[in-house]
Amino acid sequence: MKLSELAALTGARVDGDFGEIDITGAAGLDDAQSGKVTFLANPRYTPRVNTTQASAIYVSDDAPIEREIPILRTKDPYLAYTRALRLFHPEPEISPAIHPSAVIDSSAVVDENVWIGACSVIGPSSRIASGVRIYPNVTIYENVTIGRDSIIHSGTAIRERSVIGKRVVIYNNAVVGCDGFGYAKDEQRSWLKIPQTGRVVVEDDVEIGAGTTIDRASVGESRIGRGTKIDNLVQIGHSCTVGEDSLLCAQVGLAGSSHIGSRVILAGQAGVAGHLTIGDDVVLTAKSATSHDVPAGKIISGIPAFDNKEWLRSTAAYRRLGQMQRRLRELEKRLAAMEGSSVNERQAVGLPKSSIADHVKPKHELSSETASSNRMIRISTNQLERFRQIHKAFPEKSKLPRKDEWRNRSDDEIWIRMVSQVVVVGRASPAEKLCEPAVRSRIAWNRISRMEKEVAAKVIWEVLREIGARYTGRDWRSCRKTSAIVSNLDHLKTYPRGPKGFITDIALKGSSVDMIRSVAKQLRYIKNKGARDFLMSGFGLVQDHIALDSRVLRVLNHLDVVLPARVTSDPDIYEQVERDLIQQVCDPLGITGAELDQLLFKHYKEIMQMF
After folding, report:
1. Which of the listed residues 69, 88, 107 is the one where a domain comes to its end?
2. Plot region of 302 (φ>0 → left; ψ -120 to 50 → alpha; else → beta)
3. Do 349 and 409 fall within a single domain?
């Protein structure tokens, strides 16, 4: 099949003049050989594009691909690849046949264009439509209806009165229409079985995984909506309904009379209690269970399940319970000591007891022991030894700008550094391309500052796309990075003496904390860690701080340094963690915070392999 034909059939377009390339199949990035088409849906696998042997690749409309390879652009690469797989691996056409060992009741109505395997049984008054495939050892009870082109795999049992729609696939050893689990207690407190007189209705285009059971209703019906996909080993109780296009992953359990909306995702081992309603587009994450109705559109987690974002915060706090308990005990001891001391002092001079607030020392008078108890993190002896080993392994001093380096920077250098600080968010490597003359000239200060705002925004967005910056979106109007850079451009254009005046005023703030806060306040997209990096590695203005970017955080986590949950989002917590690292790591090693930052940032891959 020609590449141009494949593109048309899968909803993609060919970049460049490669339409006449022959494509013979589809495979993953690592497995594809010459003649195959592959796909890239997750950016984390982008490096594998450089090593794949595929002849062409599906990518998203805005994905940057550096390698010379025929590209198929599409909104959803994974969907297009799936369609390609279906083209190259179509379902085999049916060859009508009925095995001699199959048992078909004389009252059953079976179309001529069916395939029925060995030892299958079709009960009285059942109806089997054209194109149906029934594999060996399938049991179909009485009054069952199976729609066109459905496939029933070996070992499946379809119980009485069940209705199976068109193009349904039921995998091995599934049971559709089993008795519901319904019992009533009699006068002797024994369980009396409730007759299950209803049925199961499976609508068109449903798939039912191996070992799954769907119970029929005691009265009425259990119904599975059109297009729903059910994984292996799922239990659906009696009188349940599942809407259209929902996903029920492995080992999900629905208790009786639960009602699931359309496009719902129930992840692995999720559970739903009986007589509940789950609204449309709900996601219940893995191993979660709900005992209450869930409104449409919610994402919930946990047991009992609640809002996913709250659950994530709660689990983060749970991991820190031991640390919180230790801090609480320390605070209780300090409180008791302070209260006891204040009471004794007042009684000694004949004064009444007073509140502890009368005796709390000002912050600047706290002892070193008290300051130590206020630490957000604690570096153990073993952890400090690891930092010492890292420092010895990479003894060269980090090449940081001199403290007065900012005085020598031009407007253009200051501007490009600001752009670079926005670009690095998400991925650092694209920022290096800003130094290339062809790229830099397009957004040079003397050029970009003279453009109309909309023209400048378009140019900036195009450059961001070309260098492979993350989070650029599909249009310059919706790109947050472009919006931030344009906002910063407007700020510097109106600033007295432009970028040079801006950095001069920052330098005159005096303390590094004031400099960082001023940058974070004035520039968009450059906050806690970004402001530190901007002033530290960009201009040498800050030496006693640490930019806790993703690389540094990964190293700290790898060294088992327990960080507070909101370290990157709460400025106060960030500053305290920064102070703790400087006091407990930098001071013993005789290095500055900036040098520790660059040490962990530049050598993080080697450090991750050291321990």
Report:
1. 88
2. left
3. no
* CB contact burial 580-590 (16+ within 10 A = b; e otherwise): bbbebbbeebe
**What is the rounded average pLDDT of the residues 509-537?**
85
Domain membership of residue 133 (yes or no) is no
Nearest to 592 by CA among 453, 292, 391: 391
Among residues 89, 99, 153, 238, the one annotated as catalytic is 238
The range of the structural domain enclosing residue 244 comes to: 156-309
Distance between CA atoms of 279 and 375, rounded to whole angstroms? 45
> Model confidence over 528-572: pLDDT tens digits?
778 888 888 778 788 788 888 778 888 898 888 988 877 877 888
Catalytic: 364?
A: no
Q: Which of 88, 114, 132 delimits the end of a domain?
A: 88
pLDDT value of position 572: 82
Cα dihedral 147, 153, 154, 160 in deg (nearest 10): -30
pTM: 0.54
What tokens does 21 get?
Answer: 């390339």
Q: Do 197 and 230 reside in the same domain of the chain? A: yes
Top pLDDT among 611 and 188 is at: 188
Rg (CA), the chain: 33
Query: For 366-425, how does the pLDDT look when each residue is reduced to its tens digit (9 = 90+)?
Result: 344 444 556 788 899 989 999 999 988 887 655 677 777 778 889 999 999 999 989 988
- State the average pLDDT over residues 12-27: 90
